[in-house]
């Protein structure tokens, strides 16, 4: 069988872009292709393109294309942004943009009003004042938080509350429905696709529930600024970007008001004290540490040492959870991945004959009519 001549450098680029583990038996031969040791046949190259999530025609280019994130990139380190986005990140953004485009047309066809708060703030506004407005809009008071037994309950409440404001919220740890394409928290924690009629907030579901809450509030702050962008929300070093620092301040104040942490901190930065405060506020332990520092209750060296230790601890817990695996009810988790408000809109529009079922299946990431009907039933769409 004849082989296909492609530049090994292109195959190496595709492997790196997909972060594919070629040590596994299934993909071991890909390493031979990329090294030039064994040129692939046409069928093998097609399989390679599919496995690496690269358009087949790209592999015949003389050199790799310059790919960039299609929205503003706020994940800065010093003066430079993070380069070379992964295929998983790019495909996740493209999919969210596709859904946003559909929902914008749907909202306008329904004579929906634009979001009043979209772009209503600037970075010159006080984070304390804006956080109070957002907290009131979400009804996320301390009294409300006492009703939540777990971070998961608090997160679900916040997702529902943000969607009640008219913002589409999507939370997923994988690309589409592909459990073999996990999203990396090291690459990004969330992004916002700003639009007066169809704003989308995407939260990386690979993060802990408490960390997802901070990401959701951080991205909501960007909505108040009327911005699109991708963020990493690091609290261990100040961002060079003013809007990122502002969004971090707003998110932190929503979750843990500075005045309250000053009165409730018991003066000892122990694990027990940090955990106590995290449970009280239903916030990440990392956010608790940051707020204790923001309140000037500990110095920088003490804060950063505690932050690094807690970060390491959380990573170990996360790694253990990944090894254990997690299942869950598809009809509970999938609407969160696609967006509950978005899912309802697509289903209703299909039932009323304005969207073809074929297109509705594509938008929702389903392939079976029975699955579509199951989602409709779970979401309460008659």
Automatic annotation (TrEMBL):
It comes from the Bacteria. Residues 163-292 form the IrrE N-terminal-like domain. It holds the Pfam family Peptidase_M78. This is IrrE N-terminal-like domain-containing protein. It comes from Kocuria varians.
